[in-house]
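In this section we walk through a basic example: taking a raw amino acid sequence and producing a predicted 3D structure, encoded as C-alpha coordinates. The instruction is simple. Fold the sequence below.
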Amino acid sequence: MILTITMNPSVDISYSLDKLVINDVNRVSNTRKTAGGKGLNVTRGINFSNIPVLATGIIGGTTGKFIQEQLDEDNIAYNFYVTQKESRNCIAILHQGNQTEILEAGPRLDNDDVEQFLQHYKKLLNHVKIITISGSLPLGFPVNFYVNLIELASEYQIPVLLDSSGQMLLTTLKSQYKPYLIKPNQEELKQIIQMDIDVNDSHSLIKALKHDSLDDIPLIVISLGKNGAFARCFNHYYQVSIPKINVVNPVGSGDITLAGLAVSLHENESIEVMLKRAMTMGMLNAMEAQTGFVNMNNYHEYYQQVEIKEII
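The resulting C-alpha coordinate sequence is shown next.
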Protein backbone atom coordinates (compact mmCIF):
# COMPACT_ATOMS: atom_id res chain seq x y z
CA MET A 1 0.00 0.00 0.00
CA ILE A 2 1.02 3.60 -0.66
CA LEU A 3 0.43 6.22 2.03
CA THR A 4 -0.07 9.78 0.77
CA ILE A 5 0.38 12.71 3.14
CA THR A 6 -1.32 16.07 2.63
CA MET A 7 -0.66 18.18 5.69
CA ASN A 8 -2.57 21.22 4.39
CA PRO A 9 -5.39 19.93 2.15
CA SER A 10 -7.92 22.20 0.52
CA VAL A 11 -10.99 22.47 -1.60
CA ASP A 12 -9.61 23.38 -5.02
CA ILE A 13 -11.90 25.73 -6.95
CA SER A 14 -11.25 26.25 -10.66
CA TYR A 15 -12.77 29.23 -12.53
CA SER A 16 -12.56 29.35 -16.35
CA LEU A 17 -12.76 32.82 -17.91
CA ASP A 18 -12.34 34.05 -21.47
CA LYS A 19 -10.74 37.16 -20.00
CA LEU A 20 -9.85 38.24 -16.47
CA VAL A 21 -10.74 41.90 -15.93
CA ILE A 22 -9.01 43.50 -12.94
CA ASN A 23 -11.03 45.82 -10.69
CA ASP A 24 -14.34 44.73 -12.24
CA VAL A 25 -16.94 41.96 -11.94
CA ASN A 26 -15.96 38.67 -13.57
CA ARG A 27 -18.88 36.26 -13.96
CA VAL A 28 -18.09 32.56 -14.11
CA SER A 29 -20.35 29.93 -15.69
CA ASN A 30 -17.93 27.01 -15.41
CA THR A 31 -16.83 26.22 -11.83
CA ARG A 32 -15.22 23.02 -10.56
CA LYS A 33 -14.67 22.09 -6.92
CA THR A 34 -12.55 19.13 -5.88
CA ALA A 35 -10.88 17.81 -2.76
CA GLY A 36 -7.44 19.20 -3.28
CA GLY A 37 -4.01 19.83 -1.98
CA LYS A 38 -1.08 18.33 -3.79
CA GLY A 39 -1.14 15.07 -1.85
CA LEU A 40 -4.79 14.36 -2.65
CA ASN A 41 -4.04 14.81 -6.34
CA VAL A 42 -1.27 12.23 -5.88
CA THR A 43 -3.79 9.96 -4.18
CA ARG A 44 -6.15 10.12 -7.14
CA GLY A 45 -3.37 9.35 -9.58
CA ILE A 46 -2.43 6.24 -7.60
CA ASN A 47 -6.07 5.24 -7.35
CA PHE A 48 -6.49 5.52 -11.13
CA SER A 49 -3.58 3.06 -11.42
CA ASN A 50 -5.47 0.50 -9.28
CA ILE A 51 -2.82 0.42 -6.56
CA PRO A 52 -3.95 0.33 -2.89
CA VAL A 53 -3.63 3.82 -1.42
CA LEU A 54 -4.52 5.51 1.86
CA ALA A 55 -4.71 9.30 2.24
CA THR A 56 -3.82 11.02 5.49
CA GLY A 57 -3.14 14.53 6.72
CA ILE A 58 -5.06 17.12 8.71
CA ILE A 59 -8.59 18.36 7.97
CA GLY A 60 -11.25 20.28 9.84
CA GLY A 61 -14.56 22.12 9.67
CA THR A 62 -17.12 22.10 6.88
CA THR A 63 -14.37 22.29 4.26
CA GLY A 64 -12.82 19.17 5.78
CA LYS A 65 -16.17 17.38 5.62
CA PHE A 66 -16.47 18.31 1.94
CA ILE A 67 -13.03 16.82 1.33
CA GLN A 68 -14.09 13.55 2.96
CA GLU A 69 -17.33 13.45 0.96
CA GLN A 70 -15.43 13.98 -2.28
CA LEU A 71 -13.01 11.16 -1.46
CA ASP A 72 -15.96 8.90 -0.61
CA GLU A 73 -17.44 9.62 -4.04
CA ASP A 74 -14.11 8.67 -5.62
CA ASN A 75 -13.89 5.47 -3.54
CA ILE A 76 -10.60 6.61 -2.01
CA ALA A 77 -9.65 5.35 1.45
CA TYR A 78 -8.55 7.94 4.02
CA ASN A 79 -7.63 8.24 7.67
CA PHE A 80 -7.17 11.90 8.62
CA TYR A 81 -6.35 13.57 11.89
CA VAL A 82 -9.36 15.86 12.41
CA THR A 83 -9.18 19.27 14.11
CA GLN A 84 -11.82 21.88 14.87
CA LYS A 85 -10.04 24.40 12.62
CA GLU A 86 -11.41 25.03 9.14
CA SER A 87 -9.49 23.59 6.18
CA ARG A 88 -8.62 25.98 3.37
CA ASN A 89 -9.81 26.85 -0.15
CA CYS A 90 -7.47 27.32 -3.12
CA ILE A 91 -8.66 29.12 -6.24
CA ALA A 92 -7.25 28.76 -9.75
CA ILE A 93 -8.43 31.24 -12.40
CA LEU A 94 -7.84 29.99 -15.94
CA HIS A 95 -7.83 32.87 -18.42
CA GLN A 96 -6.38 33.53 -21.88
CA GLY A 97 -4.01 30.60 -21.61
CA ASN A 98 -2.80 31.75 -18.20
CA GLN A 99 -3.37 30.47 -14.69
CA THR A 100 -3.71 32.82 -11.72
CA GLU A 101 -3.86 31.20 -8.29
CA ILE A 102 -5.21 32.50 -4.98
CA LEU A 103 -4.16 30.22 -2.14
CA GLU A 104 -5.44 30.44 1.42
CA ALA A 105 -2.80 29.74 4.06
CA GLY A 106 -5.03 27.33 5.98
CA PRO A 107 -5.61 26.91 9.71
CA ARG A 108 -3.08 27.80 12.40
CA LEU A 109 -2.41 24.75 14.56
CA ASP A 110 -0.32 24.27 17.71
CA ASN A 111 2.21 21.91 19.29
CA ASP A 112 -0.52 19.61 20.53
CA ASP A 113 -1.65 19.10 16.92
CA VAL A 114 1.95 18.35 15.95
CA GLU A 115 2.26 15.61 18.56
CA GLN A 116 -1.22 14.24 17.92
CA PHE A 117 -0.55 13.91 14.21
CA LEU A 118 2.81 12.17 14.78
CA GLN A 119 1.03 9.58 16.93
CA HIS A 120 -1.67 9.23 14.29
CA TYR A 121 0.99 8.79 11.57
CA LYS A 122 2.89 6.10 13.48
CA LYS A 123 -0.22 3.94 13.68
CA LEU A 124 -0.50 3.91 9.87
CA LEU A 125 3.00 2.65 9.02
CA ASN A 126 2.74 -1.10 9.63
CA HIS A 127 1.37 -2.05 6.20
CA VAL A 128 2.86 0.74 4.07
CA LYS A 129 5.37 0.13 1.27
CA ILE A 130 5.80 3.68 -0.11
CA ILE A 131 5.07 7.13 1.35
CA THR A 132 4.51 10.35 -0.57
CA ILE A 133 4.61 13.76 1.12
CA SER A 134 3.35 16.74 -0.83
CA GLY A 135 2.85 20.44 -0.41
CA SER A 136 2.97 22.90 2.44
CA LEU A 137 2.68 22.61 6.20
CA PRO A 138 -0.10 24.09 8.32
CA LEU A 139 0.69 27.34 10.08
CA GLY A 140 2.19 26.58 13.48
CA PHE A 141 4.05 23.44 12.39
CA PRO A 142 7.88 23.50 12.56
CA VAL A 143 9.73 23.81 9.27
CA ASN A 144 11.56 20.51 9.96
CA PHE A 145 8.34 18.53 10.43
CA TYR A 146 8.88 16.51 7.25
CA VAL A 147 12.23 15.40 8.66
CA ASN A 148 10.31 13.88 11.58
CA LEU A 149 8.04 11.98 9.20
CA ILE A 150 10.98 10.67 7.17
CA GLU A 151 12.81 9.62 10.34
CA LEU A 152 9.81 7.60 11.52
CA ALA A 153 9.43 6.03 8.07
CA SER A 154 13.11 5.02 8.11
CA GLU A 155 12.45 2.93 11.22
CA TYR A 156 10.18 0.80 9.02
CA GLN A 157 12.54 1.05 6.00
CA ILE A 158 9.84 2.81 3.98
CA PRO A 159 11.09 5.07 1.16
CA VAL A 160 9.62 8.57 1.12
CA LEU A 161 8.91 10.59 -2.02
CA LEU A 162 8.94 14.30 -1.16
CA ASP A 163 7.40 17.04 -3.29
CA SER A 164 7.86 20.26 -1.37
CA SER A 165 9.73 23.53 -1.75
CA GLY A 166 11.27 26.51 0.03
CA GLN A 167 12.57 26.15 3.58
CA MET A 168 10.69 22.88 4.10
CA LEU A 169 12.68 21.24 1.32
CA LEU A 170 15.98 22.94 2.18
CA THR A 171 15.70 21.94 5.84
CA THR A 172 14.98 18.34 4.87
CA LEU A 173 17.97 18.15 2.53
CA LYS A 174 20.28 19.42 5.28
CA SER A 175 19.06 16.83 7.79
CA GLN A 176 20.31 13.35 8.59
CA TYR A 177 17.11 11.78 7.26
CA LYS A 178 16.72 12.18 3.51
CA PRO A 179 13.82 11.37 1.18
CA TYR A 180 14.31 8.64 -1.40
CA LEU A 181 13.04 10.90 -4.18
CA ILE A 182 12.50 14.61 -4.78
CA LYS A 183 10.86 16.25 -7.80
CA PRO A 184 11.90 19.91 -8.01
CA ASN A 185 11.21 22.15 -10.95
CA GLN A 186 13.94 24.32 -12.46
CA GLU A 187 13.44 27.26 -10.07
CA GLU A 188 13.25 25.02 -7.00
CA LEU A 189 16.48 23.29 -8.02
CA LYS A 190 18.21 26.66 -8.44
CA GLN A 191 17.15 27.58 -4.92
CA ILE A 192 18.65 24.37 -3.57
CA ILE A 193 22.04 24.53 -5.28
CA GLN A 194 22.38 28.33 -5.64
CA MET A 195 23.67 28.20 -9.20
CA ASP A 196 22.32 28.91 -12.68
CA ILE A 197 21.06 26.01 -14.77
CA ASP A 198 20.69 25.77 -18.54
CA VAL A 199 17.80 23.34 -18.94
CA ASN A 200 18.64 22.93 -22.63
CA ASP A 201 22.12 21.63 -21.80
CA SER A 202 22.35 18.12 -20.36
CA HIS A 203 25.85 18.81 -19.02
CA SER A 204 24.52 21.78 -17.03
CA LEU A 205 21.74 19.60 -15.63
CA ILE A 206 24.16 16.82 -14.69
CA LYS A 207 26.44 19.34 -12.97
CA ALA A 208 23.44 20.63 -11.00
CA LEU A 209 22.42 17.14 -9.93
CA LYS A 210 25.97 16.40 -8.75
CA HIS A 211 25.75 19.20 -6.20
CA ASP A 212 26.87 18.14 -2.72
CA SER A 213 23.47 18.88 -1.17
CA LEU A 214 21.90 16.18 -3.36
CA ASP A 215 24.46 13.44 -2.76
CA ASP A 216 22.29 11.21 -0.58
CA ILE A 217 19.10 11.39 -2.65
CA PRO A 218 18.87 8.21 -4.76
CA LEU A 219 16.31 9.52 -7.27
CA ILE A 220 15.78 13.10 -8.48
CA VAL A 221 13.36 14.09 -11.23
CA ILE A 222 13.53 17.68 -12.52
CA SER A 223 10.25 18.83 -14.03
CA LEU A 224 10.77 20.76 -17.27
CA GLY A 225 7.16 21.42 -18.29
CA LYS A 226 6.53 20.94 -21.99
CA ASN A 227 10.18 19.89 -22.37
CA GLY A 228 9.61 16.77 -20.27
CA ALA A 229 12.04 16.01 -17.48
CA PHE A 230 15.61 15.22 -16.56
CA ALA A 231 16.38 12.56 -13.97
CA ARG A 232 19.18 11.10 -11.91
CA CYS A 233 18.84 7.57 -10.59
CA PHE A 234 21.87 6.93 -8.39
CA ASN A 235 24.74 7.64 -10.85
CA HIS A 236 22.74 7.36 -14.06
CA TYR A 237 21.18 10.32 -15.90
CA TYR A 238 18.14 10.36 -18.17
CA GLN A 239 16.59 12.86 -20.57
CA VAL A 240 12.82 12.45 -20.88
CA SER A 241 11.05 13.85 -23.95
CA ILE A 242 7.28 14.10 -24.28
CA PRO A 243 5.00 14.77 -27.28
CA LYS A 244 3.13 18.01 -27.82
CA ILE A 245 -0.31 17.81 -26.23
CA ASN A 246 -3.45 19.92 -26.01
CA VAL A 247 -3.20 21.39 -22.51
CA VAL A 248 -6.65 22.03 -21.02
CA ASN A 249 -5.89 22.37 -17.30
CA PRO A 250 -2.33 21.85 -16.04
CA VAL A 251 -3.29 22.09 -12.34
CA GLY A 252 -2.17 18.94 -10.55
CA SER A 253 -0.04 17.52 -13.37
CA GLY A 254 3.11 17.52 -11.23
CA ASP A 255 1.21 15.70 -8.51
CA ILE A 256 -0.06 13.05 -10.92
CA THR A 257 3.52 12.66 -12.17
CA LEU A 258 4.57 11.93 -8.58
CA ALA A 259 1.76 9.38 -8.39
CA GLY A 260 3.23 7.61 -11.40
CA LEU A 261 6.66 7.54 -9.77
CA ALA A 262 5.18 6.12 -6.55
CA VAL A 263 3.25 3.43 -8.43
CA SER A 264 6.37 2.34 -10.31
CA LEU A 265 8.41 2.11 -7.11
CA HIS A 266 5.58 0.15 -5.49
CA GLU A 267 5.57 -2.25 -8.45
CA ASN A 268 9.39 -2.49 -8.65
CA GLU A 269 9.49 -1.28 -12.26
CA SER A 270 12.66 -0.24 -14.09
CA ILE A 271 13.75 3.40 -14.14
CA GLU A 272 12.83 3.65 -17.84
CA VAL A 273 9.31 2.36 -17.23
CA MET A 274 9.02 4.57 -14.15
CA LEU A 275 9.84 7.75 -16.05
CA LYS A 276 7.57 6.86 -18.96
CA ARG A 277 4.71 6.04 -16.60
CA ALA A 278 5.16 9.22 -14.60
CA MET A 279 5.33 11.55 -17.58
CA THR A 280 2.38 9.87 -19.27
CA MET A 281 0.25 10.30 -16.16
CA GLY A 282 1.21 13.98 -15.91
CA MET A 283 0.32 14.60 -19.56
CA LEU A 284 -3.04 12.86 -19.26
CA ASN A 285 -3.95 15.08 -16.32
CA ALA A 286 -3.04 18.25 -18.23
CA MET A 287 -5.36 17.18 -21.08
CA GLU A 288 -8.43 17.14 -18.80
CA ALA A 289 -10.51 20.00 -17.41
CA GLN A 290 -10.86 18.34 -13.99
CA THR A 291 -7.93 18.74 -11.61
CA GLY A 292 -6.32 15.45 -10.65
CA PHE A 293 -8.21 13.43 -13.27
CA VAL A 294 -6.66 10.91 -15.65
CA ASN A 295 -8.39 9.12 -18.52
CA MET A 296 -6.55 5.80 -18.44
CA ASN A 297 -8.11 4.83 -21.80
CA ASN A 298 -5.52 7.14 -23.39
CA TYR A 299 -2.62 5.82 -21.33
CA HIS A 300 -1.09 3.37 -23.82
CA GLU A 301 -1.23 5.86 -26.74
CA TYR A 302 0.78 8.53 -24.93
CA TYR A 303 3.03 6.12 -23.04
CA GLN A 304 4.40 4.96 -26.40
CA GLN A 305 5.30 8.54 -27.33
CA VAL A 306 7.46 9.27 -24.27
CA GLU A 307 11.15 8.86 -25.10
CA ILE A 308 13.87 8.07 -22.56
CA LYS A 309 17.53 8.64 -23.38
CA GLU A 310 20.31 7.76 -20.95
CA ILE A 311 23.02 10.41 -20.95
CA ILE A 312 26.47 8.84 -20.81
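Looking at the output, two observations stand out. The longest strand covers residues 10-17. The CA atoms of residues 246 and 287 lie 6 Å apart. In the next section we compare this with other chains.
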